[in-house]
Design brief:
By secondary structure, this protein is of the alpha/beta class. The chain has helices at about 1-15, 20-35, 35-45, 95-115, 140-145, and strands spanning about 50-60, 65-75, 80-85, 120-125, 135-140. It has a five-stranded mixed sheet with strand order 1-2-3-4-5.
């Protein structure tokens, strides 16, 4: 019987490297972030600014590219914070491909919403970042619970 319990524990540990676990972890982290918008605003120094909170999704068509943005803070001060939320077990390496993806998302968002506001990218990740790239701000899991 003890062998069976150990085997079940071992199977759980094996799941930590599975794609299903990675997807679940990302979803759970994103959910935590969405539940802490007031803390995010506080860390960004915009607690007193009226803000509309949403997400953005535009489906691709035959003639137009789509995009998905995890969190959008549309601020009364003519700034829109666009958030990329990434769960990683270490500091996130923001690559050239990641930067290109954010530029693409910005373009789709601007075209779809016809906004003239300044778009400011914020990355929320578990353990920080190795390089900032085009990001205006980087927040960590620690910031959500400060």
């Amino acid at each position: 019987m003890e062998g069976q319990v150990l085997q079940k524990s071992y199977n759980w540990l094996n799941m930590l490297d599975s794609q299903a676990y990675k997807v679940w972890s990302g979803f759970a982290f994103e959910h935590i972030c969405l539940r802490h918008v007031q803390q995010i605003k506080k860390v960004l120094g915009i607690s007193g600014v009226y803000t509309e909170v949403s997400a953005f999704y535009k489906k691709s068509t035959d003639t137009e590219d789509g995009a998905q943005i995890d969190l959008v803070l549309d601020r009364k001060d003519r700034v829109i914070n666009l958030f990329e939320i990434k769960f990683y077990n270490d500091a996130f390496h923001f690559s050239a491909a990641d930067m290109a993806a954010l530029w693409h998302k910005s373009s789709v968002f601007s075209k779809s919403t016809n906004t003239k506001k300044y778009l400011a990218w914020v990355l929320i990740t578990t353990f920080g970042i190795k390089n900032k790239g085009i990001l205006d701000n980087v927040l960590t899991l620690e910031d959500l619970f400060a």
